[in-house]
Amino acid sequence: MKLGLLVIIALVVSALAANLLLADPGYVVISFRGYLIEMSVPVLLALYFLTIVSAWLIVKLFRAPRKLGEAAGRYRAGRAGQKLTRGVIEVAEGNFAKGERLLARSADVSDAPLLNYLQAARAAHLLGKDERRDRWLREAYENLPEAANAVLLTQAELQLDQAQYEPALATLRQIEENSPNHSHALALLGRLYYRLEDWPHLSEILPKLKRYGRLDGATLTKWSLRAHQEHLELCADGEAVLAAWKNVSKDQRKNLGLLETYYSSLIRTGLYDKAEKDLAADLRREWRPELVRLFGIVEGSDAPRQLKKAENWLRNHSDDADLLLAAARLCLRNELWGKARSYLETVISMRPTPEAYQDYGRLLNRLGEGDAAAEAYRTGLDLVARSPLPAIPHLDPHTGND
């Protein structure tokens, strides 16, 4: 609509101008430094028009190489973008070799070469070609120094996936030098230490992980508890156990597994009275069978008083097999054989376990009941083996034969 209107206006103006120029073409004289140039107005207009057109053509010709280069660049970039997309699709569909080729070939002309290199490295990694994987990562690292951390993190993830722990550790430490407290690098480092069971180093970075790491609370708690447990188990003496326990938070001290490790460590290092006192206090706060079992194992300095505590608890927990077993063991320590036998037989009737039969067999042996003791041991072994064991044959004293 607008173009048609412009054409009509141009035709009208041209017609009017031609009519005027034909009626009187006009006359132009140009005098310049002694030179005199004479021409009609139509000739002047024609020269002006030719000059404008010539200038426009010269500008176009001057800009043509750059325009052609830009067009070629856009074409190559478009092709590279297509190859990047196709490469990513091929890798996602499991065609790793084809995807790697497409990604590698288009990296030099890609608008996002980092994606090409990283995806090509992943494709090579999935093919099990570690040398090619490292080559693409090296290309990315050298050509895109501003993306060094992204490249190193990718390398560390792929190395961890292949259980290449020493190279992964070296890569993560390089990131730490470049960017201390990098959240993702810290998370990967924590995962590496956990897999290596390097509890001292894991304990060392746990405060940073809690502050900077992007880890869920459940994972942090799991790692922290395991590190504390391993530390307690490695303590050589009671002082070390108590010092390690001071580093455990109030909330974590309620964890049953950690409590068992703590009390077992106290018992192992000879802090029996401390273990007995703290166990009794914990059981008053919350009744837990696992701690009751430990109370029966700890050898406090006052065995009669310890037995009295257990028997007082039996008033409210008379059907607790763990407490009955603990009371039986304390009776054995106090050489109350009859009471110990009664408790053990009650435990076996309620919940037969290998350890109950072991204690029962030991007691029967002490009482001189060898056959009954052998039967108790055999029954306990049956529970461990989950299949009946043959009876132990006796020697015939007269013939000497089995």
For the structure shown, list the relevant keywords.
402 residues; 74% helix; mainly alpha; two-stranded antiparallel ribbon
Could you explain the architecture of this structure?
By secondary structure, the chain is an all-alpha fold. The chain has 19 helices and two strands. The chain has helices spanning 2-23, 41-92, 96-105, 113-126, 130-143, 148-161, 165-178, 183-196, 199-212, 217-234, 238-246, 256-268, 272-285, 289-297, 303-313, 321-333, 337-350, 354-366, 370-385, and strands at residues 28-32, 35-39. Mean pLDDT is 81; it is low at 391-402.
Distance between the termini: 120 Å
For the biggest sheet, the summary is: 2 strands, antiparallel
**Overall number of strands:** 2
Name the shape in a single word: rod-shaped
Strand order of the main beta sheet, please?
Answer: 1-2
Radius of gyration: 45 Å
Low-confidence stretches: 391-402
